[in-house]
Write a structure and sequence with these properties.
The structure holds two protein chains of two kinds.
Chain A (H helix, E strand, L loop, with lengths): L2 H11 L6 E3 L5 E4 L4 H10 L5 E9 L4 E9 L4 E10 L16 H12 L38
Parallel strand pairs in A: 2-5
Antiparallel strand pairs in A: 1-2, 3-4, 4-5
Chain B lengths: L2 H4 L13 H10 L13 H8 L22 E5 L7 H10 L5 E5 H6 L21 E3 L6 H16 L21 E3 L2 E3 L8
Parallel strand pairs in B: 1-2, 2-3
Antiparallel strand pairs in B: 4-5
Helix pairs in contact in B: 2-6, 3-6
The chains are: A alpha+beta, B alpha/beta.
Chain lengths: 152, 193
């Protein structure tokens, strides 16, 4: 099943979600944040996409973007790529841990390094950097760290 | 007076008279026990160095000690991330003197390709004193063996009189870095009592 077919079916199924098809080598479906959980529920239960392999945060000049790669172990299908745009100020995307529990640490990593919050996440705290670290180091505007060493 | 005169006749074939430095350093150089400790991919070049093909046991180092209290060589094999840095320094402080550090690979020498990142210490020598640097990414076991032989050479050149670890006036403890809000910080100098 090509991404275009998947998109057409979803657009037919959810006409009021304003889904958009993003052309390219890795063709993706653009979803609005508030519709993400419902669409994910449908993809898992009805279409058999039972594996969320990666959640990625991307820093663009005008927005943040979260990318989801979904695969199906049952049908050996995929990936279905979902993209969600969010504002640069106080970025938020709803959590999908309730649908794919494996998304837990992936969302924590995106929060830790990119600073995108996931409302609904059961335990949204840093996973790679230590507690008390300020800033999100993979953002383009991260100023860099200032370290003190015993020998320099 | 020659050695012949110093030794009693019955011991002449069994006793060797030599400078204390020579004996002391020979014993130490021939039994440098490394600590079982690997940080990243360089560890996978260090492991075969101990196995049968390269056989580090030839140089008196067959034991990787699993405790820092029994080890005298720390092979920093791999990238030191900032999150791992306090543990590396703590392990170094727990090793008994005399102790040596061998920085293995580009990351342990300078941070390597990750030098400009937010999460990697740019070189083990920012944290602890380093005796030998072994370049490579990762270095082959032959390079590590060469570095260890260089360390043996260093050890044989030391003098028991001037060795800093028998002196009481030298504080050789290295400060353990702590996690700060903008990166690693040194501990505050206010130890009570």
């Amino acid at each position: 099943m090509t991404p275009k077919e998947t998109f057409d079916r979803l657009a037919e199924k959810f006409p009021n979600f304003e889904l958009a098809y993003l052309e390219g080598k890795d063709a993706a479906i653009l979803v609005k944040g508030e519709n993400l959980v419902e669409l994910a529920q449908y993809l898992r239960d009805e279409e058999g996409y039972d594996y969320c392999s990666a959640i990625t945060g991307v820093d663009y000049p005008d927005r943040f973007e979260v990318v989801y790669h979904l695969y199906s172990m049952k049908k050996e299908g995929g990936p279905v790529i979902l993209k969600v745009h969010t504002a640069r100020e106080d970025p938020e995307v709803p959590s999908i841990v309730s649908i794919w529990p494996g998304a837990d640490w992936q969302e924590r990593e995106v929060w830790d390094l990119m600073g995108i919050r996931f409302p609904g996440h059961p335990n949204l705290k840093r996973v790679l950097m230590w507690e008390g670290f300020e800033g999100h180091p993979l953002r383009k505007d991260f100023p860099g760290t200032e370290d003190e060493y015993a020998f320099s | 007076m020659t050695e012949e005169d110093l030794a009693p006749p019955e011991l002449k074939r069994n006793v060797l008279i030599a400078p204390i430095d020579w004996i002391y350093n020979l014993g130490r150089a021939a039994s440098v026990w490394p600590m079982m400790f690997g940080l990243a991919c360089c560890a996978f070049e260090m492991i075969p160095t101990l196995a049968s093909r390269y056989d580090l046991a030839r140089f008196g180092m067959e034991f990787m000690r699993a405790s820092p209290r029994q080890a005298e060589l720390m092979i920093v094999a791999g990238t030191i991330t900032k999150k791992m840095a306090p543990q590396v320094v703590r392990l170094y402080d727990q090793m008994p003197e005399p102790k040596y550090v061998l920085a293995m690979g580009a990351c342990a020498i300078s941070g390597g390709p990750f030098k400009d990142g937010y999460n990697v210490v740019p070189g083990a020598d920012r944290l602890i004193p380093v005796n030998v640097y072994v370049p490579g990414c990762p270095p082959r076991p032959e390079s590590l063996l060469d570095g260890i032989l260089k360390l043996h050479k260093q050890i044989r050149g030391e003098h028991i009189r001037t060795s800093p670890w028998y002196r009481k006036d030298v504080d050789r403890e290295v400060p353990v870095p702590e996690y700060g809000p903008r990166g690693l910080v040194l501990p505050k100098e206010e130890k009570s009592e």
